[in-house]
Amino acid sequence: MAMDHTVKVILGSIAFGIFWLLAVFPAIPFLPIGRTAGSLLGAMLMVLFRVLTPDQAYAAIDLPILGLLFGTMVVSVYLERADMFKYLGKVLSWKSKGAKDLICRVCLISAISSALFTNDTSCVVLTEFVLKIAKQHNLPPRPFLLALASSANIGSSATPIGNPQNLVIAVQSGIPFGQFVIGILPAMLVGIVVNALIILISYWKLLSIQKDEEDVPPEIVADEDVNSHRFSPARLSHSQIPSLNSQEWDSRLDSMYAQSPPNSNANVETLRTSLSSKDNEIHWSHGAVTEAVARISDASKECVPNASPPPQKREEGLSSKSFNSMDKQKEPLPLQVSEGKQHWSTKWRRMAWKCCVYLVTIGMLVALLMGLNMSWTAVTAALALVVLDFKDAQPCLEKVSYSLLVFFCGMFITVDGFNKTGLPNTFWNFMEPHAQIDRVSGTVVLALVILYLSNLASNVPTVLLLGARVAASAAAISPAQEKRAWLLLAWISTVAGNLSLLGSAANLIVCEQARRTPQLSYNLSFWNHLKFGLPSTLIITGIGLVLIK
Predict the structure, then answer these.
(1) Are 519 and 135 in contact (CB under 8 A)?
(2) Are 493 and 487 in contact (CB under 8 A)?
(3) Rounded distance, CA 154 to CA 491, Å?
(4) What is the pLDDT at residue 159?
(5) How far is CA 326 from CA 231, 248, 320, in A?
(6) Nearest-angstrom CA–CA distance, 159 and 155
(7) pLDDT attached to residue 332
(8) What's this model's pTM, rounded to 2 decimal places?
């Protein structure tokens, strides 16, 4: 592609530069509009500067990639509703054998869930789990957060649906789902093991001390708290506090009210009002409220010491109370039976629906492995779950990240416009002689270029800019080398996200989720991540260069 006119090159570079600036620094002070608006601004400038015509801009949007991304997000939402991630949390904390065992579990579960449900989704859901488990065992959160983010990136490289750049590569290369997985899976498995070893070696002393040196609160988190997380904002459960419901307390207070003298009725009413006003906010402690009721009862006895009825009336009262209590026990029995049947009916319907969600998801994965169209397979699975839910789908569809889809639309247009300036082609023409993947030195040079650009311009734009050029250069050698070039691009651009905190959206999600989690807040700094990320990225990238054939 020959260089375009100088004015078009300059204007196209300005538009791409604005897009890059807002993609990397979304809250920049002089234009804090975010990544999504930044991508749309870059796309609009490409059209206004006449780098692209409106028809070319529309044609640049890759609908199969958007369909695949949308379908996988909807499936992830329904899997979350079916408690898939709750079960993953239980696996994390089940029969744990110490800090090192927990690190290995976090690495393994993060990698598997990211390969199947995308790395961003896994990080959103599992970050709070990891913080709660670290607090439960009185361990420092940093190594666990690093294990979660880095393993999510490594694990997501194994499948086309693991991350956005793999979606782009799978669609553009035409590599079948099964061949993609077989090509990268060995490197992913070895990479996860090596990544876990690097974390264990780096934090061995810290993990050997059952004392958190970073001021994590000393309270112990119950297992049920760890396992009861939902996709919604974090909250600590109070289900372990023994309590009585409001109806039981009302019946107790009514009996006290009838037996108490007038001057103590005010105390009873005060307690009743306090209980009812707090009923929807917190669960009262059984012991505390029982003690309060006992104090009021003692006070009433002191005020009327001889208020007991005559023996004959007391016997009549006892007999009538016994008769009434028997009647009360007999009356609600049919209602209890019907409520029990309704409870079991609801429970079985819920279990059947969960099984349907899991079966549809498995069917989607099988269809992808069989080589069916990835985009339509994901969309079909998503719509099947919507129909099986048999409810208004709006609440579930609202959880889809439409801002991400819009970001991709703007990015497709902006990158296509930048390609038409000729600058990426000029850069590749300079690098191509030194980056031939049939030589060891060429493969290393290509890896360093992708690592650098993935952290400079983000991994998805890097794939869009270099993917076709790298593949065409490798295709001139052999078809097998072309396939290897696409797989290496997927591996390197994904693992490159572990180098720095800004290298991957998954890293930023873990950092922000950890910082904002109530009562468990932890700040993962840029330098703490870089000290681990730099050696880990270089070593694991090298593993892929050797194992991906």
Answers:
(1) no
(2) no
(3) 8
(4) 94
(5) 47, 18, 10
(6) 8
(7) 53
(8) 0.68
- Determine the longest span between alpha carbons in the chain, in angstroms: 113
Give the Cα separation of 148 and 263 in Å (integer).
62
Instruction: Give the distance from CA 426 to its chain's centroid.
Output: 39
Nearest-angstrom CA–CA distance, 340 and 333: 11
> What is the Cα 37 distance to its own chain's centre?
23
C-alpha to C-alpha distance for 502 and 530, rounded to whole angstroms: 10
Nearest to 415 by CA among 377, 366, 359, 467: 467
Whole-angstrom Cα distance, residue 116 to residue 76?
Answer: 9
- Look at 130-144, 219-233, 298-312 and tell me which has the smallest mean pLDDT: 219-233
Residues 72-103 have pLDDT tens digits of: 889 988 988 888 877 877 777 777 778 888 99
Angstrom distance (rounded) from CA 436 to CA 445: 8
**383-388-394 Cα angle (round to 5):** 60
Rounded to whole angstroms, the Cα distance separating 227 from 221 reads 10
Structure tokens belonging to residue 93: 């904390």
Helix/strand/coil for 209: coil
* Lowest mean pLDDT segment, chosen from 25-29, 229-233, 264-268: 229-233
d(CA 76, CA 535): 32
Alpha-carbon distance of 483 to 470, in angstroms, equals 11
